[in-house]
């Protein structure tokens, strides 16, 4: 009898326990992914109403607009160290608790400073969640990376548009405080399975360096030494810069061209909805193609065609332009999937995830601001779109580096 068969005979419930454990992790990942954007999109549709009651103007609205990417960047860089110190599962639990507490308490405050501080707390939790979910997928579902990436990214998309869809109707009936605070229930629900997972691991929730080849203790987290990491950060960062610039400025581009404000808002919703196509298709393509760089080239073509339409004839076919631009950010789910496909270990995945998202969101934070500054300085949209063309050029170069079939751990020393 083989060793494996002997072990199965001695411990007949181990396989059932493993399946049950993976099911609990799946539930935790799904609920966490649904939570990762709720503090952002549940707030932005209500900022005018909240500003009138709490007492802030357009400048503070701009601060709220920059706060998500700023917090995602800060905690993207800090999270790998937290994971080393406390373990991925404990950090995931802490992230959901931070998010739930931040969302719940900010709905009770009546001054701007507290609203900003508690929003930052919630967004910090989301920033941690952004980073730890990919290595958790790597740890528990290394045999199902493409499928789990599709589930995870699709849930992020649902958690992006659903709060925005119901924020105003709920606020009209129950008030903005209820509309904001109800999303804390989802974050606390996401924390519950992580509690069970942490307890079940009984001290084994720290990343075990000794069990992972290619991850020496002194070298863990030094992703910045690898061209893989820089390629990933460049592709992710420039994609995020373009995406947040479009979220911010598409309504103004179209209204200046003669569209109504409602139409501009609908086009932002369409831009978000197109992300579902990428969330479903990109992870599978990345898993099946050794070098998915042709997908990056296709994304660049979509960007260029959509930008040209918005710049030179925005009202000729605005739906088509937004559809084209909306397909461009397919490099976002590609990046999240490649975090696991370009690493050998959970430690490498955590380091690459933190570096990619930390640096990427730091760059994305300045995108909408620069886009607006260039518009104000020139009085037109040509130079703002030149900025985005530069971002597309970086995506092409960085994507070429990131998509090569090689591993972070082979080059991060």
Automatic annotation (TrEMBL):
<dbReference type="GO" id="GO:0022857">
    <property type="term" value="F:transmembrane transporter activity"/>
</dbReference>
<feature type="transmembrane region" description="Helical">
    <location>
        <begin position="91"/>
        <end position="109"/>
    </location>
</feature>
<dbReference type="InterPro" id="IPR036259">
    <property type="entry name" value="MFS_trans_sf"/>
</dbReference>
<feature type="transmembrane region" description="Helical">
    <location>
        <begin position="17"/>
        <end position="36"/>
    </location>
</feature>
<feature type="transmembrane region" description="Helical">
    <location>
        <begin position="381"/>
        <end position="403"/>
    </location>
</feature>
<feature type="transmembrane region" description="Helical">
    <location>
        <begin position="56"/>
        <end position="79"/>
    </location>
</feature>
<feature type="transmembrane region" description="Helical">
    <location>
        <begin position="293"/>
        <end position="313"/>
    </location>
</feature>
<feature type="transmembrane region" description="Helical">
    <location>
        <begin position="115"/>
        <end position="133"/>
    </location>
</feature>
<dbReference type="Pfam" id="PF07690">
    <property type="entry name" value="MFS_1"/>
</dbReference>
<dbReference type="InterPro" id="IPR052524">
    <property type="entry name" value="MFS_Cyanate_Porter"/>
</dbReference>
<dbReference type="InterPro" id="IPR020846">
    <property type="entry name" value="MFS_dom"/>
</dbReference>
<feature type="transmembrane region" description="Helical">
    <location>
        <begin position="180"/>
        <end position="199"/>
    </location>
</feature>
<keyword id="KW-1133">Transmembrane helix</keyword>
<dbReference type="GO" id="GO:0005886">
    <property type="term" value="C:plasma membrane"/>
</dbReference>
<dbReference type="InterPro" id="IPR011701">
    <property type="entry name" value="MFS"/>
</dbReference>
<protein>
    <submittedName>
        <fullName>MFS transporter, CP family, cyanate transporter</fullName>
    </submittedName>
</protein>
<feature type="transmembrane region" description="Helical">
    <location>
        <begin position="351"/>
        <end position="375"/>
    </location>
</feature>
<feature type="transmembrane region" description="Helical">
    <location>
        <begin position="259"/>
        <end position="281"/>
    </location>
</feature>
<keyword id="KW-0812">Transmembrane</keyword>
<feature type="transmembrane region" description="Helical">
    <location>
        <begin position="228"/>
        <end position="247"/>
    </location>
</feature>
<feature type="domain" description="Major facilitator superfamily (MFS) profile">
    <location>
        <begin position="25"/>
        <end position="408"/>
    </location>
</feature>
<feature type="transmembrane region" description="Helical">
    <location>
        <begin position="319"/>
        <end position="339"/>
    </location>
</feature>
<feature type="transmembrane region" description="Helical">
    <location>
        <begin position="145"/>
        <end position="168"/>
    </location>
</feature>
<keyword id="KW-0472">Membrane</keyword>
């Amino acid at each position: 009898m083989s060793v494996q068969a002997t072990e199965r005979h001695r411990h007949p419930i181990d396989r059932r326990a493993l399946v049950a454990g993976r099911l609990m992790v799946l539930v935790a990942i799904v609920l966490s992914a649904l939570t990762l954007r709720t503090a952002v999109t549940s707030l932005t549709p209500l900022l005018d109403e909240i500003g009138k009651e709490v007492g802030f103007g357009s400048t503070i609205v701009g601060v709220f607009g920059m706060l998500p990417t700023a917090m995602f960047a800060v905690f993207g860089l800090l999270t790998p160290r937290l994971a080393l110190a406390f373990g991925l599962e404990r950090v995931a639990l802490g992230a959901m608790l931070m998010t739930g507490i931040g969302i719940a308490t900010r709905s009770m405050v009546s001054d701007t400073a507290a609203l900003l501080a508690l929003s930052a707390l919630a967004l910090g939790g989301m920033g941690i969640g952004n980073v730890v979910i990919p290595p958790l997928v790597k740890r528990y579902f290394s045999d199902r990376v493409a499928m789990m990436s599709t589930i995870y990214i699709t849930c992020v998309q649902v958690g992006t548009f659903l709060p925005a869809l119901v924020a105003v109707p709920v606020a009209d009936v129950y008030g903005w405080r209820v509309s904001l605070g109800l999303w804390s229930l989802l974050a606390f629900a996401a924390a519950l399975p992580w509690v069970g997972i942490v307890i079940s691991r009984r001290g084994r929730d720290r990343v075990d360096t000794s069990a992972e080849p290619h991850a020496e203790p002194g070298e863990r987290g030094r992703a910045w030494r690898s061209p893989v990491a820089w390629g990933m950060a460049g592709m992710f960062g420039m994609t995020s810069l373009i995406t947040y610039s479009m979220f911010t400025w598409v309504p103004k581009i179209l209204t200046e061209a003669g569209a109504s404000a409602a139409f501009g808002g609908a086009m932002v919703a369409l831009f978000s909805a197109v992300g579902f196509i990428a969330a479903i298709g990109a992870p599978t393509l990345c898993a099946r193609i050794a070098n998915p760089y042709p997908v990056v080239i296709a994304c660049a073509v979509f960007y260029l065609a959509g930008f040209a339409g918005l710049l030179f004839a925005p009202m000729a076919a605005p739906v088509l332009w937004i559809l084209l631009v909306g397909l461009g950010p397919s490099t976002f789910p590609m990046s999240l999937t490649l975090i696991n496909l370009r690493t050998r270990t959970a430690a490498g995945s955590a380091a690459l995830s933190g570096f990619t998202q930390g640096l990427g969101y730091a760059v994305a934070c300045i995108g909408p601001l620069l886009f607006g500054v260039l518009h104000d300085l020139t009085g037109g949209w040509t130079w703002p779109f030149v900025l985005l063309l530069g971002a597309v050029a970086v995506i092409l170069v960085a994507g070429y580096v990131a998509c090569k079939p090689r591993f972070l751990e082979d080059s991060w020393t």
